[in-house]
Amino acid sequence: MSQRDSLAFLVCLTLAGCGNAHMGELKRYVQEVKQRQPPPIAPLPDIKPVDTFVYQPGDRRNPFVMDTQTAQAAAGTSNGIAPKIRRKEELEEYALDSLEMVGTLAQDNTMWGLIKAPGGTLYRVHVGNYMGTNNGQITRISDNEIDLTEIVSDKPGDWHERQASIALSQ
């Protein structure tokens, strides 16, 4: 028998001896725990009734119906400019100044811009995509910059367009 075989035999013999040495003590403890009486459950707290309230509008406006002035302000119809209601694109999570233009690609007569987000993720954008937190839509992509038209509001319902761009970083 080799030294490695004798060592393996010794380890097996030691582990086999540990099997039932303390099982009797463990079984007594489990039996003792099972025989204990559970503590009483605390009673539920008293539920106090809530006083009802009846809304009496009187001469106040109905908060669930939008009047003409509020509707125009919400829709931005005062000058015809308002952001489109649509699903936000990924690059609209970031402020425009946190995005970095790192290059361009040309494919099938389409110019694509390469934008690096703050986490290091690289995005491919084209004219018509949106970027930035101010509803910025890409209007032009050249070799060294991306031009956008943003729709911003100075006060509720007063929307206007402004031009922005991201230059190619060195």
Which tags fit this structure?
170 residues, alpha+beta, SH3 type barrels, flat
Describe the model.
This protein has helices at residues 3-17, 23-35, 68-75; strands at residues 100-107, 110-116, 122-125, 130-131, 136-141, 145-155, 158-167. The model has no long low-confidence stretch (mean pLDDT 84). A hairpin with a 3-residue loop joins β5 (136-141) and β6 (145-155). It has two domains: 3-35, no CATH class; 68-167, SH3 type barrels, CATH 2.30.30. The N and C termini lie far apart (72 Å). It is an alpha+beta fold and 170 residues long. The strands form two sheets. The protein has a four-stranded antiparallel β-sheet with strand order 4-5-6-7, with no helix packed on it. Strands 1-2-3 form a three-stranded antiparallel β-sheet, with no helix packed on it.
Task: Summarize the entry for a quick read.
By secondary structure, the protein is an alpha+beta fold. Helix content is 21%, strand content 28%.
Give the count of structural domains.
2
Kindly state the mean pLDDT as a whole number?
A: 84
- The coarse overall form would be flat
Task: Write out the strand line-up for the largest beta sheet, numbering strands in chain order.
Answer: 4-5-6-7
Q: If helices are DSSP runs of H or I spanning 4 or more residues, what is the number of helices?
A: 3
Helical amount: 10-25%
> Under CATH, the topology of the largest domain is which?
SH3 type barrels
CATH uppermost class of the largest domain: Mainly Beta
Residue windows where pLDDT falls under 50 for at least 5 positions: none
H-E order: HHHEEEEEEE
- Multimerization state: single chain
First-residue to last-residue Cα separation: 72 Å
Largest sheet: 4 strands, antiparallel
Return Rg in Å: 36 Å
- Under the CATH scheme, which architecture of the largest domain would be assigned? Roll
